[in-house]
Each structure stands twice: as C-alpha cells, then as structure tokens.
Amino acid sequence: MRKLYSIPAGLLFGILFALLLPAGAPYVAWLGQIFLAVLKLLILPLILVSIYASLAGGTDLRQIGGRALGYYLLTSTVAASLGTLIGLSFAQGLPAGLLDLPPVEPSGAAFSLERLIDNLIPSNFFASLAAGNILHIVFVAVIAALASRRLAADQRTTLLDGAQALDALLMQILRGVLALAPVGILALVYTSLAGMEWAGIFELRSFVWAVGLAALLHALVFLPALYRARAGRPLWSFVAACRAPLLTALSTASSSATYPISKQALEVHGISERVTSFTLPLGATLNMDGSALYQSILLIFMSQLAGADLSIWQALFIVLLTMASSAGTAGIPGGGIAMMAFMLDLLGLPQTYLALYLVVDRFFDYPITAINVWGDLVVAAIVDREVRDSSLNGQD
C-alpha cells in the first residue's frame, strides 16, 4: 500500500508541469496511455471472476444487490434534484443567445428500448468483451454463478477454486501496476491540463459555479452524512482509505478504469470481497451521482440560452429520464453525445447546443467521474455494514 501514498504526488506534479511546461506534455503522454490501458485490461476479467466467485460461493444476490440498487437510486435521485434546484437558481437572468455555438452532428443512435435491451443483455459474449461492455459481463457472471449452484458439488468446487485462484492472480498483477501509478497519473494529468481550453469553459462562469456548488454539496455534505448515518464508522479513516481510487478517477475520468483500485482499497479497509465484487461493477455502470447533477445543470443552462422556459418539474423529469436510460449508453463510443442529443430533442432545443456540451465536458468529466466513484465507494461501505449487521442478527 505504500505506493498508493505516492498517487497524490503524481497528481500534484502533473498539475505543476502542466502549468509550467505545457509544451512537454506530448513527450510523456505515452506513459499515461500505457497505465490506463493496463488498468482497462484488468477490468473485465476481474469483474467476471470476482462476481462469479462471490455469488457461486453462496453470496445472497438479493441481500447485497437489492440494497446496492436501493442506495444507488437514492443517491442519484438526490444528486439530480440538487443539480436541478441549483441550476434553476444560477441560470436565472442568463441572456439568451449568449454564445455563438456552431452546429454539431450527434454521434450514435438516439435512445430506445431496443438499444437499452441490447446494452443490458449480450448476444455475443466475445463481442461484449471486445467492446468493453461491463453490464454484459455482469449479466454473464451472475447467470453463470447462479447456474453453477445447481451443479454437482465436485464440479462446483472445481469452478469456484479456479475463479478464486484467477481472482488472486489478477489482484497480484494489479499490485504491480499500482507500483507505476504515480508516473501514470502524472502523465495523464499533465497531458489533460496542458491541452485544456480554459477560455471556452469560463465564458459561462455561472455554469461553472453552479456545477461546483452542486458537486461540493453532494460530495462533501450529503454522501458523508449518508455514510455516517448508515455505516456508523469514522468518516476520515474511510476517506483516507479511498484516496487512491478517488485520485485515480480524478486523473483518468473513467469509473471503469478505477474499479480495480477501488476494489483493492475497500478490501484493505475491511470491506467484504463479496460486497465489493458485486456493488462496484454495478456502480461503475448504473450509479452516476456526478453525471446526474452535472447533466441536469447543463440542460437547464442550455434551455436558458435558447430562451426556453423550463419549470422545475420538467427539468427533474428530464434528469430522472437521463438517469434511468444511462444504461442504454454503456460501452458505446459517443454515447454521452447521443444521449444529450436525445434530451435536446425531448426539450425541443436545437442540436446546435451539443457544442456547449463538447466545450465543457472535457473539463468537468474528471471531477464528475470522481463524484461517481465516491458514490460507489460510500454505497459499498454502507451495504457491507448492513449485510454484516443482518448476518449477526440472523445468528442471534
């Protein structure tokens, strides 16, 4: 774990180099690409074997999965509501047509029920692996684990032992990768910040303040309060244990790539592997606290710039629909743009406003991803505490 203490140093030096020597970023970009590629390489096999080993070993899917989904729904709903209220407050008085936005063609198909089903249930397992569709992998792992419970005892034991051994192997590889984490994160942060277009972002200062306030309230007030109320453990020790996944999410802007580090950090902190193995993969695809508050504010500001009146109930409805349909864009290149195009159509706004999304998303993608991961970590800790308490009560 000593290497994890160096991750903040990598983040800090990445920021300093971006500010002082921005021209040198292209020369170290390959280091960040290698680090991120190896992390992504571990994601799918680790999710597959860890979920299988957890469920095949006797984990109660309803006890863990039901609790996790309930908390994910709660935190995402609070985030969406908070973003809507703050967005409506900060967007007041913003003049319509403030920005000269060029037209942008949305990439990918619009949201539909058929597309949602395709992204939840795989038809070709190897294609799902190649596409990196985490929801497909979760589905296959759950089905395989439940089916294995009906096998003969010796066959079930053989499969379970193999999955546990492979899980241990992947975690050993992860420990080696984390030894290089400070260098990889330095390169990622250096490259990202050196090429950032700051002028376009701060043209809408009120939008930046709105997202910043909503993010701080959700990440520093609501989620810590929920953790203290439901997990009943010291907050600061948990935050310290989670610093590596949070900084990795902040550096990579990828909830999926952060999964292996989140899993290791929580288990070192004492969270059960059967909880992390199931809640974290679900959270990486379904729990989008940061995205919910960010997209709600973005849609409200787009409406204001277009001169359209948007009531709080209309805004909340659109945001909740975005939350519910987020699974329909999992693993699809340009899926975020396609979903935003769908929402613009629903609001009757021109596709021209996709340009605003492209301008601000590159900057906000990093902190918003960190909030998404923070929500996953908090829920995993709460579910672990409740499952332990439930088991103790059952024994009594």
Explained architecture:
The chain has 396 residues and is mainly α. The protein is 78% helix and 0% strand. Helix 2 packs parallel to helix 6 (134-148), helix 3 runs antiparallel to helix 18 and helix 10 packs antiparallel against helix 15. The longest helix has 42 residues, at 354-395. It is globular and about 70 Å long. The two termini are 37 Å apart. Mean pLDDT is 79; it is low at 1-5, 102-111 and 327-335.
Q: For the record, give the distance between the C-alpha atoms at the N and C termini, rounded to a whole number.
A: 37 Å
The oligomeric status of these chains comes to single chain
Instruction: Tally the helices.
Output: 18
Tell me the major beta sheet.
none
Chain-averaged pLDDT: 79
Overall shape: it is: globular
Low-confidence stretches: 1-5, 102-111, 327-335
Structural class: mainly alpha
Q: Count of DSSP E strands?
A: 0
Q: Strand percentage, roughly? A: under 5%
> Fraction of residues in helices?
over 70%
Write down the secondary-structure element order.
HHHHHHHHHHHHHHHHHH
State Rg.
Answer: 21 Å
How are the elements arranged and paired?
Elements: H1 7-20, H2 25-56, H3 61-91, H4 113-120, H5 125-131, H6 134-148, H7 153-178, H8 181-194, H9 198-201, H10 205-230, H11 235-241, H12 243-252, H13 255-268, H14 273-286, H15 289-305, H16 312-324, H17 335-347, H18 354-395
Helix pairs in contact: 1-8, 2-6, 2-7, 2-8, 2-13, 2-14, 3-10, 3-14, 3-15, 3-16, 3-18, 10-15, 10-18, 12-13, 12-18, 13-14, 13-18, 14-18, 15-16, 15-18
